[in-house]
Predict the 3D structure of the following.
Amino acid sequence: MLSFVEENYLKAIYHLSLNGKQEVSTNALAEEMRTTPASVSDMIKKLSQKSVVSYKKYQGVNISEDGRRLALHVIRKHRLWEVFLVEKLNFTWDQVHEVAEQLEHIKSPLLIQRLDEFLGHPKYDPHGDPIPDEHGNLIEKHRQPLDALSIGDQGVMTAVDDSSSSFLKYLDKMEIGIGSNIKVIDFIEFDGSMDIKVDDDKTLTVSSTVAQNILVAID
Amino acid sequence: MLSFVEENYLKAIYHLSLNGKQEVSTNALAEEMRTTPASVSDMIKKLSQKSVVSYKKYQGVNISEDGRRLALHVIRKHRLWEVFLVEKLNFTWDQVHEVAEQLEHIKSPLLIQRLDEFLGHPKYDPHGDPIPDEHGNLIEKHRQPLDALSIGDQGVMTAVDDSSSSFLKYLDKMEIGIGSNIKVIDFIEFDGSMDIKVDDDKTLTVSSTVAQNILVAID
DNA sequence: ATTAATATTTAGTTTAGTCTAAAAAAAATA
DNA sequence: TATTTTTTTTAGACTAAACTAAATATTAAT
């Protein structure tokens, strides 16, 4: 049985291993958890002991299959409570997160089963994120490199394939990042470059190489 | 701000100071909390530091006005969640306690305000215990053995005085339980037995002994 | 290929809550 | 009243989760 704190670490590891590589670095986790790398190092050993992550010194952590299942169970509870707060208690979407962060740690299988029924087995939370089922299965949004999209398609950037600092610097300069909404405006056959609109705001052109290395999630 | 553990100690102190004297002894509290007197001694100092109890060495604790208010706030949350679990999620009365023990520690004034509205501002929990209002005011019900009532009186069964399994089996068979509404229809002077109506539904006769061991709360 | 910079781990403390064993105070009893 | 018994507190240790400072490993840069 994991403690509240351990559950929160596991959730963070799960999220980071989706957005970036599978390997999650100590520093990234420390930043996500708003704590120090030293604390993370300690916690990683505990989680490794409990077989929810695998870990080699200085090599970052990988979430295990057990860990993934546990993380998704917590996420399921979080998202179900969010639905409850919005649909039944008239919370606005920006009021739900903090409370759901607390409610997600309540331990009672019956409670979650009944809550799910009460809410009519919702598939998505108020932010549009999918709710994992009781076995930890998640309808993952299809994730593709940007250059696989066609004109008119859009998606949310969730990761990069190339994580060289030069590429990341380029993205930074262009003000594209994880979470950016990207819509394909035009595709130039000649060199494979694309015109894209970012966050319904600025339009810019990216090379074929860049487009290959930006991963987007589409519905 | 009190921790979960501190809140639980405070609740226990509140309950013990109702049932017995205002003075709560270290040993009694240790038994209630299923811990050691030494741990209780330590905790009492912390609670005293935070002015929720007053305490003189070797003299036991007294809950303060602030402490009472805080304890009643936790009890309010506990009982509101119990109503939710029974009325909305179809829990039975014996399934709610453990889960409500967890839910009562969630910190969000908005959540409790909205939950209260959602449930229609209930005055009593599923066991018939009154729900304190948001200011920590409690409508204490007068609790009496059934045989003390007169014809026409009614109340909600809240407890039993005899908890032998033979008595509980009898109650089970008669379909009387915690939360049942009991109205006195007739009182037979000859042997002290009573005719009662349960939940405005079935009428039955109970012996004087039975009536002495059923406790009811009257408004 | 060294050196410099960055990332990660270890070592040593801290706080909350718990424990056992021992000491001290209060209550009960003779 | 003196003594025994019970209750309560203190002292010292333990675990979980955090921190700071120092040491070590890895990566980047010259």
About this structure: Residues 25-27, 37-38, 40-42, 57-58, 60 of chain B lie near DNA strand D (CB under 10 Å from a C1'). The helical segments of chain B are 4-19, 26-32, 37-49, 65-87, 96-103, 109-118, 165-174, 208-213. The mean pLDDT of chain B is 91.
